[in-house]
Amino acid sequence: xxxxxxxxxxxxxxxxxxxxxxxxxxxxxxxxxxxxxxxxxxxxxxxxxxxxxxxxxxxxxxxxxxxxxxxxxxxxxxxxxxxxxxxxxxxxxxxxxxxxxxxxxxxxxxxxxxxxxxxxxxxxxxxxxxxxxxxxxxxxxxxxxxxxxxxxxxxxxxxxxxxxxxxxxxxxxxxxxxxxxxxxxxxxxxxxxxxxxxxxxxxxx
Length: 205
Hints:
There is one protein chain. With 205 residues, the chain is of the alpha+beta class. The chain has helices at residues 13-26, 111-130, 134-139, 145-158, 170-185, 191-202, and strands at residues 33-38, 50-54, 57-64, 69-76, 80-87, 91-98, 104-110. The strands form 2 sheets. Strands 1-2-3-4 form a 4-stranded antiparallel sheet, sandwiched between helices. A 3-stranded antiparallel sheet has the order 5-6-7, with helices on one face.
């Protein structure tokens, strides 16, 4: 990938080249880096932190061991509750609030880069929410393993033909409706799928 497109807001070329080279081996082939923000501390920053945004995730790249290694903290868009930034006198602090776990932040992000980072993140989050395939991406996330199990249980139960076993009690069907509603509220299934499966359950009453 060419680095010129990632240097539009005074990003450090050497850092951008190093980070993009590592991301090239890490991201999927259909996952371009949309924006790259690079930390700029007062004075000389030897090994700055950086934040990369792709169409599938946001990656915090934090150098360790004097820059010999890098700690990658990754959040898929399904994991992100919100992003924000706080502007200081010279720079900004960029913050991500995950659905679960602690917030992650990097300070000394140049103001222009923080604003664009915020813009691109929200655009990708909105695209993810509107994507028909968003549900399948959510259940693939290991942080939602419990919800995924619930989803599979409901899916398997709902796929049974209406002509099959009719030994369901009313209480069991009500429990299915409640579980289905929870999955819909957590955006694990689309509204169309929710309505279809709801109709399937009600038809068994």
